[in-house]
């Protein structure tokens, strides 16, 4: 069987050797010898162009790699649900890379695209380059963290970013069963602090409600009526479920970009079997009920939201 194809990670070889592998395949198919290709000759420090001559590849010494490159596949799998593929619309895909040019990526979809159930879950690839393994890891992490994917799908970017920063991966002491063992132990994707999740979740819900209420306000005004107090544009009540806990919050907009989030009540923790755990809920109540935090919310040009809490750490709730 003849299988002259390239693996999708071929940019790794190209980056550390300087050889254009797809171009080399085409030229070989046209009958050109390897030694006549300038990028191949450069790998063996041989003459190029008109002065090129046949190279004894068995005896010639190849130049060492120019550095290290690590590739990461970007898929629409959910690492917190057994890496099951997810499907749906992608409203935004933005890849910024790194300022130093040490990262590169390509994607098979773009903003306003879609991952359907009959397609492969992989829709992108990101590469990080460095002088050594540590540098390549750092470049890859920066690239993954700069990748923005918004829509109905889950991705593995955060999981992979944390994976390559583990001591075992950094020290290259991993083996073929390492990842399977990690998955079997169900090491979850990193999650934001509990209080930050509450604040951001409440703010997000409030922004959605505020948009709907503005439209309702306009309807009342067009009829010559004053909107009732219940249709407030600055005060919102929400019931959230954060990591199994029901959290009742009160959100108020106190300035153009200034908000307060106050926890009114924390309910019972619900486990997978539906059994309440009041002791856990009581512990949560003791530390969070009646807690309040102030934050600033800035709308970004790319449609994102930059949130800044007044304090950093668990003590931000006062």
Number of strands: 14
Give the CA-based shape.
Answer: elongated
Strand content range: 25-35%
Fraction of residues in helices?
25-40%
* Mean pLDDT reading: 83
Low-pLDDT residue intervals, each spanning 5 or more residues: 270-287, 312-318
Number of helices: 9
Amino-to-carboxy terminus distance: 69 Å
Secondary-structure element pattern, one letter each: HHHEEEEEEEHEHHHHEEEEHEE
Structural class: alpha+beta
Radius of gyration: 27 Å
Largest β sheet strand count, sense and barrel closure: 6 strands, antiparallel
List keywords for this structure.
single chain; 318 residues; alpha+beta; six-stranded antiparallel beta sheet; three-stranded antiparallel beta sheet; 9 helices; 14 strands; 30% helix; 27% strand
Structure description:
- By secondary structure, the protein is α+β, with helices and mostly antiparallel strands.
- It has 9 helices and 14 strands.
- Helix 4 runs antiparallel to helix 5.
- The longest helix is centred in the middle third of the chain and has 29 residues.
- The radius of gyration is 27 Å and the shape is elongated.
- It starts with 9 loop residues before the first helix and ends in a 9-residue tail after the last strand.
